[in-house]
TrEMBL record:
Pfam families, sorted: Aminotran_1_2
The organism's taxonomic lineage, starting at the top: Archaea, Methanobacteriati, Methanobacteriota, Stenosarchaea group, Halobacteria
UniProt GO BP: amino acid metabolic process
Protein name per Swiss-Prot or TrEMBL: Aspartate aminotransferase
Gene Ontology molecular function, alphabetical: pyridoxal phosphate binding; transaminase activity
Domain Aminotransferase class I/classII large: from-to ranges: 26-365
Species name: Natronococcus pandeyae
Family, per entry: Belongs to the class-I pyridoxal-phosphate-dependent aminotransferase family.
Sorted UniProt keywords: Aminotransferase, Pyridoxal phosphate, Transferase
Length: 373
């Protein structure tokens, strides 16, 4: 009888989903991984106009439309003064597919992939699906990833190390100095650095920098997406930027697994990136205001809270039984160990939820925290 592939048998459905399924219908949901804002009108119109003009009925080029890839390349120039050739971009079905392409194209069975722990759940799962061996690395006290810890974890078997800033689940933003170090490590050890920048525009303190800016070799690959920046998680549009030889390898996977990203989504993404950026600024301002309210509320409840500088998550240290107590009171939070063994003793809260609900949730959390102390 045909058995299931061992690679896939090792992967389980995300612990986050289990929390959602256990929750009641009118619970306040602080478990959400997507902005609670609408997709900007001009992005929607980009798709609608392309559909009406009959430009979305056929496959696009495998890498994506030339005009979308030009828009993405111009974005890197506009935002970071990085020169990117549109030929060195593949438009993907969200950041998720982009992560998959990088790992499929660069990881051989048994090779190791280093990633932050706690970290985004896909790094472990996609490493296993690629036949690789996950090598989670713990974080600093402020929940950033220490380049020295990455360097120490590198062995002859290491194929890739993952950097994610701003980070899910911590909200931590890596400093420029760290990003320079990640680039040096990729260069000196001749190991690929996958930099996951899907939250690149959601930064409150400091600024987003990328190891891609600093590397001397082509050992840095960038993954990003419209999903979080433009509140377009449902559109499924991301991309990967890399040297041409790497893009050509990733294209082999993308071409056969996906053919091309959805055409309407490509037109929406192009409009989002080239149109007015005010909706992004407004959303980031709202997240920053909520971040301050949530951090203050958690500190007032007596919790230790590393201040997140980006994304829309906060990861307080919590006492034993805290998540259960909060979940019992109908506030959904995600236990930190859903993001790796080092997440134990923490919880992830998302503030992609309206201010009134957040304030109500903070009062409930205050009661729950007293109850477990
Ligand atoms: C760190 C990180 N990378 C990648 C993704 C995937 O994003 P997308 O929805 O574009 O596939 C997510 C989604 O939550 C994420 O948090």
């Amino acid at each position: 009888m045909t058995e299931f592939a061992a690679r896939v048998e090792q992967v389980s459905i995300s612990g986050i989903r289990e929390v959602f399924e256990a929750a009641s219908e009118d619970a306040i949901n602080l478990g959400i991984g997507q902005p609670d804002f609408p997709t900007p009108d001009h992005a929607r119109r980009g798709a609608i106009e392309a559909i009406e003009a009959e430009r979305t009925d056929a496959y696009t080029s495998n890498k994506g439309t030339r005009s979308l890839r030009e828009a993405i390349a111009n974005k890197y120039d506009r935002d970071y003064e990085i020169d990117v050739d549109p030929a060195d971009i593949i438009a993907t079905s969200g950041g998720s597919e982009a992560l998959h392409l990088v790992l499929e194209a660069h990881v051989d069975p048994g090779q190791e992939v280093i990633f932050p722990d706690p970290g985004f759940v896909s790094y472990d799962a996609l490493t296993r699906i690629a036949g690789g061996t996950p090598k989670p690395v713990g974080l600093r006290e402020d929940l950033t990833l220490d380049p020295a810890a990455v360097e120490e974890a590198i062995t002859d078997e290491t194929a890739v190390f993952v950097v994610n800033s701003p980070a899910n689940p911590t909200g931590a933003v890596q400093s420029e100095e760290d990003m320079r170090e990640f680039a040096r490590i990729a260069d000196e050890h001749d190991v690929l650095c996958l930099t996951d920048e899907v939250y690149e525009h959601i930064v409150f303190d400091g600024e987003h920098r990328s190891p891609f800016e600093f590397a001397q070799t082509d050992n840095v690959v960038v993954v990003s997406a419209c999903s979080k920046t433009y509140s377009m998680t449902g559109w499924r549009l991301g991309w990967v930027v890399a040297s041409n030889r790497r893009i050509e390898r990733m294209l082999r996977v993308h071409q056969y697994a996906q053919a091309c990203a959805s055409a309407p989504a490509q037109y929406a993404a192009e409009a989002a990136i080239t149109g007015p950026q005010e909706p992004v600024r407004e959303m980031v301002d709202a997240f920053e205001e909520r971040r301050d309210v949530v951090v203050d509320g958690l500190v007032d409840a007596g919790l230790e809270v590393p201040t997140p500088s980006g994304a829309f998550y906060v990861m307080p240290k919590v006492p034993d039984g805290w998540c259960e107590e909060v979940l019992d009171r109908d506030v959904i939070v995600v236990p930190g160990d859903a993001f790796g063994a080092n997440g134990e003793g923490y919880a992830r809260l998302s503030y992609a939820t309206g201010m009134d609900e957040l304030k109500e949730a903070l009062e409930i959390i205050d009661d729950a925290t007293r109850a477990v102390r």
